[in-house]
Each structure stands twice: as C-alpha cells, then as structure tokens.
Write a structure and sequence with these properties.
The protein has ten helices and no strands. The chain has 336 residues and is mainly alpha-helical. Helix 2 packs parallel to helix 5, helix 6 runs antiparallel to helix 7 and helix 8 runs parallel beside helix 10.
Length: 336
Amino acid sequence: MGSAVWGYRDSVPSPAAPSGDAEHSDETERSRDAERSGDAEQSGEAERSGSILNRGNIRRSRVIIAAVAALAVLIVVAVVVARENRQNEEREAAVAHWGAQIATWESEQLAGIGAGIVPADAAGSIADAVSGTALRPVWPDVPPTADSPEDSLDEVNASCTAVTAYDESVQVAPEPPAPPTDLDLTDAERTRFDEGSAALAELRNALSEPMAAIRQFCGTYPALLLAHGAENAAEANRAVAETLAVQCPAPALDGICAATIDAASALAGEVESSEAIQATWTAAVVEESAVETALGGQRETAAAQSAVAQAVAGEAAELEQQIEDAATAFATALRP
C-alpha cells in the first residue's frame, strides 16, 4: 500500500517554474503591441498628412479653376471687344461711303437743277423774248409802233422750251442716295439725307404754281404770234379772238384778254373804220390794274398798247423769277 502511494506521487508532475520561453513570449507580445501602437500612430500621422495634402490639392485645384475661368472670361471679353470694334469699323466705313454718295449727289444737283434755268442757244428769258405786242387786236393798216416791236416766234418758243425743260429736269431728278438698310443711323448721321430730300421736295412744290402759269403762257402767246402773222387783218383778228377764247396767257391779264377778244371779233368782220373799236378797246384796257402803273395816267391807244406789252412781259418775268428763287433756295439748302 505504501508502495502504491509512493508510486502515485512520483507519477503526478509538480508545478513548473516560469521558463525562459514564457518571458520571451511576453516580450514578443509587448513588441507587437508597440509595433501596433507605432503603426497606429504612423497611420494617424499619414491620415493627417493625407488630409492636409488633400486640402492643399483642393485649394490648388480651386486656384487653377479660378485662373482658367478668369482666362476664359478674358478671352470671351477680348473676342466680344474685337467683334464690336470690327462691327464699329464696318459701320463707320458704311456710313462714310454713304456720306460720300450723298456728297456726290449734292454736287451733281448743285451743278444741275441748283443752277436754275439754262437758256437754250441764242435764247434768253421769256421776258426778254416777249414784247407783249401779241395781246392786242390787229389794227388794219397800222404797223407795230417803235416801242412795241414784233416778237420772234422762234425766240419765244426757245425761251419757253428752256423753262419747261428745267421743270422736267427737276421732276426727274434722283432722290438722294438712300441710307443703308442694315444700319441704325443717328439723327445727326441722317441730317444731310433728310435735308437733301426735303430740299428737293420743296423745290418741286415751289415750281408747281409758277410752272402751271408758264405752261399756260407758253401755250397761248406763241399761238397769238401765229395769229398776228395771218395774211390779212380780218383773218388775224379772227385767229386772235379764237385763241384768247380758249385761254388767256395769264390770269392777271384776263380783263385785257376780254377787251381784246371783243375788239378782234369786231375787226374780223367788215368795218369801215377801226377808230371806234380802238377807242372802246383802249377805254377797257386802261381800267385794268395790270396796266395802271405803266400807263401813268395816259389814256391814248398807243400808251395802252405799250402798257399791255409791259404787263405781258412783266407776268413772264415774275413767273421766271419765282422759278429762279426756288432754284436758289434749293442750292442754298444743299451747300454745307
């Protein structure tokens, strides 16, 4: 029995004392902990460094983006400014070209219709060509007096043609060159065009009344000259009366025309003496205001004839002067 217990004790191992391997294991664990702690610190430091680096990169990216945006803006502004400058230059060139066209038009009109009536070769004004002797009856066997010479039909027709030709040139004169349709012009830039258009319109309007009177005069007076050229007094007076019955040379001479129609109609028939007819014609004529100044109180037939001649030439001269005044006003409006 005792032997068996002994044997049991021998078989149970006794507690073991710490060994060198255990100590080494602890040191290894502490080393690992230290390493892990260092790694963690390094990882944190790396994270902090990465965060700082990221923030730096973001700031640099923002700066780069801002710089690129600013550069893009500058490029856009430069393109817009360049385009505007080009458009302004093109506009200025177009306005200058149009202005040159206006100047050419002005020069041409000043040399043309602005110069007034241009007499035909060997022809003066209507007033110079007309003595007024045709606006009276043909007195039998009484030649024209020295102060009332016979008119030249050719000269009267040439003078009338020159005046009517001037009016026609005004009516067909071109308008000033129109402004470019693609330009929004200022009032100042349109001034010369507007003034030119207005001046031409005013000239045409100013010619309307005197030219209507000129056409009436030139349509009647040459016919009276032809009537006075008939072979005998009776035929001449008949033609004078018929011509004046259609139209008097001028409205201001209507009273004289009426007196002449009556006298010429009487002389167209068989009469033994023209004295009574002359007296009647003279008495009617001297009452007309158109001859009052020229008569100066005289009441003789010769004085009446002379006064009538002056009244006829005066009407023609006044009408021509109205036309010349209109041409002068037009030229003045065009001159800078």
